[in-house]
Structure formats: structure tokens, C-alpha cells
Specification:
By secondary structure, this protein is of the alpha+beta class. It is built from 4 helices and 10 strands; from the N terminus they run βαβββββαααββββ. A hairpin with a 2-residue loop joins strand 4 and strand 5. The N and C termini lie far apart (43 Å).
Length: 276
């Protein structure tokens, strides 16, 4: 790590409680065009990302709309933030309307040099607890990159799929997902900012929403399966409003390959372990 001061952020932690309010669950469901579970029913997988939000006042936000860095997460001045990927273990479903908490810890910080310059990778571990038991554990990889033209063209061809769903990432969909996840990152809703400041040709589709849609497509095609582990990563951003597909196939016993594709090439991909 080039900046030894950043090492002091390893071990930084926070705990956020949430009641998994059914009203917000209904708003997430409406945004994703899914049925809304009732109080006591399982929260669909990856919907936890709309909850356990550590809020910041308006004067505590950075230029990009995220909370100013240097609190729970390390400072990364003059760098653009991206959600790179992560890993999720599903132990038991969270239940709607039942108090829960998320315990979060920064577990790793690394600086690397990529095609577009210096990249700062921050890995955060989250544990979601409800009624004394851990329901979900996950690691999220966040990357901070120096301002540079983003990679937009895909190079890896998409494989043949067993199922697929077309997604129209309209500005309204992106706005509503930002709203239900309380995500102020301006690349998802502020066209002048994302094009003028961060160099994208249009609004950027949320990485977490893409992962959620990939997993939902698997469940639509394979109802009744029990999810165990998901590893996902972004290969390139998807820009609204151009449509893309979420697709997948079963690669072997208890293993599925999931991906998001556009123009025949991969944009995001994941591997899922499941049981019948």
C-alpha cells in the first residue's frame, strides 16, 4: 500500500440496526416489479442492500453524493467510487418486520495499478443478525479509481443461456432504486454530473441492482432452490437507457453461472451455489 496511513482503517467497524419496515419492502418490490412479502415472511435475497443504511446529513456529503470519506471508510480524495463485486453467504433468510442489525468491518485495503491508473480496493465484511443468529454474511469490494475514461466496451463473449430476462434501465428505474437504497451517488441520476465530471456517456446502472436482477432471474427459472453462496463482479459499467439481459445456466450439480450481457458480451458475472 503506497499510503501507510490507510492501513489504520483496517478494523474500522460500525453497527446499524433496522426494523425491516414492510412499507419500504413494498417500495423495493414495486421498484423491482416483484411481489411484496408480508411481515414475518422472508426478505428476498440481496434486498438487504435497501436497509441498514448509515445516513449522513446534507453537509456531510461529498461532491459525488456519497457520505464524505474518512469516517467508517478510508479517505480516497479525488477518486471515483465503484462497486466492484463481492461474495454473499446465505445462512437463513431475514424476515420482514423483525428487528435486525448489520455489523460491518473494513477487513482489507490494497492499492494497485490498473490500465486506467492507481486503484484503491477496500473490502468490507457485513454480518446481518436477527434474533441472535447470523442470517447473511458478505464481503463487498469497493474500488476507488483515479479520474480516467471508463472502460465501456465488452470483450468477453456471453455463453449460451438456459434463461434470460430483458432489462430496460430507464432513468426512472435508476432513480427509484437510488431512492429505496438511499444511495446519493450522482452517477445514477444526475446526467450533467456523470457526463461532465466522471466521463460516462450517460447514467450508470447500479451494480447492486444488476446483481439483484441476475439472482432474481435465476429464481424465476429455478423456483424452490435454496441459495447458499453467491460470488459476483462487474466487468464494465452498463449505461442507461440501453437495454441489457440478465441470463444464466446451470453449470453442474448445485452450481449456476449468472451474468448480465449487452450486445453479446459480458458486463457482470456471478457464480451461485444452491441446493434443491
Amino acid at each position: 500500500m503506497n499510503n501507510p496511513d490507510l492501513a489504520s482503517w483496517i478494523g474500522s467497524s460500525e453497527t446499524v440496526a433496522d426494523g425491516l419496515d414492510p412499507t419500504l419492502v413494498g417500495r423495493v418490490a414495486a421498484t423491482l416489479s416483484e411481489p411484496a412479502p408480508k411481515v414475518g415472511e422472508p426478505l428476498p435475497p440481496l434486498w438487504q442492500w435497501a436497509f441498514f443504511i448509515q445516513t449522513a446529513p446534507m453537509d456531510g456529503l461529498g461532491k459525488d453524493g456519497h457520505p464524505a470519506r474518512g469516517g467508517f471508510l478510508p479517505p480516497a480524495n479525488d477518486r471515483n467510487r465503484m462497486w466492484a463485486g463481492g461474495r454473499v453467504d446465505f445462512h437463513a433468510p431475514l424476515r420482514v418486520g423483525v428487528p435486525a442489525e448489520r455489523r460491518s468491518t473494513v477487513i482489507d485495503i490494497k492499492e494497485k495499478t490498473g490500465r486506467t491508473g492507481s486503484l484503491l480496493f477496500v473490502t468490507v465484511r457485513h454480518e446481518y443478525w436477527q434474533e441472535g443468529a447470523m442470517a447473511i454474511s458478505e464481503e463487498q469490494d469497493i474500488v476507488y479509481r483515479q479520474p480516467a475514461p471508463p472502460k465501456l466496451e465488452g470483450t468477453e463473449p456471453a455463453p449460451g443461456s438456459a434463461w434470460r430476462e430483458k432489462i430496460d434501465p430507464t432513468p426512472t428505474l435508476l432513480f427509484r432504486y437510488s431512492a429505496v437504497t438511499f444511495n446519493g451517488h450522482r452517477i445514477h441520476y444526475d446526467h450533467p454530473y456523470v457526463t461532465g465530471e466522471e466521463g460516462y456517456p450517460g447514467l450508470v446502472v447500479h451494480g447492486p441492482m444488476i446483481a439483484t436482477l441476475m439472482l432474481a432471474a435465476f429464481q424465476h427459472a429455478n423456483p424452490g432452490k435454496t441459495l447458499e453462496h453467491l460470488a459476483y463482479r462487474g466487468l464494465r459499467p452498463l449505461i442507461a437507457p440501453k437495454p441489457f439481459d440478465v441470463a444464466g445456466r446451470v453449470a453442474g450439480p448445485g452450481v449456476a453461472e449468472l451474468w448480465a450481457e449487452q450486445d453479446g458480451t459480458l458486463a457482470h458475472q456471478a457464480q451461485l451455489r444452491f441446493t434443491a
